[in-house]
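Hi there, hope your week has been kind to you so far. Do you reckon you could talk me through the fold, stretch by stretch? Thanks so much in advance, here it is.
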Amino acid sequence: MTASQNLTPVIGPDGLARPPWAVTDPLLRHYYDTEWGMPVRDEAGMFERLCLEGFQVGLSWRLILTRREALRAAFHGFDPDKVAAMEGIEHLLADASLIRNRRKLLAPLTNAKATLALREEGTNLAEFIWSYQPDTTPVPLTAADVPSQSPESVQLAKDLKRKGFTFVGPVTMYALMESVGIVDTNLVGTWRRGASGVWV
């Protein structure tokens, strides 16, 4: 298989075309088929995705998916109110089922407090992040055509940092925007292109 072929949609044994990253691994394929790119509009759901994207920095998304249930247990189902009330993460550092990085484990606590502060401004985390939805979405033919960031993700990162959030760089925020349906970066020809209903 050439490098160019490895960037184009791949038709699986079930006859469905998927991006290369979602073809061979059952865990990633299930995530792509059922969850990735679908709209997340509730605060708790957006908070979880924001935290998971922060944990993913420098790591593979597959690893995060394998640790997701343990992270949910450690952070009270990513309930912002409960996470904001946590007194520390020392007890989590020895847990091999988690991502044992002190800064990353502290980030949900910091981000939970910032999430509660957004409520005081009369909005919530999901509404705030969706307000950065662009006027158009990419139309990638190959994986090489998928952007790693956008003007909107750069601005979102700046504004979240200004509001006290951490692990919210522009590349991480673009990945978040992809995963929650704010942009549709499904490759043209893949079976999930347009599935979110946001971009038709």
Summary: The chain has eight helices and two strands.
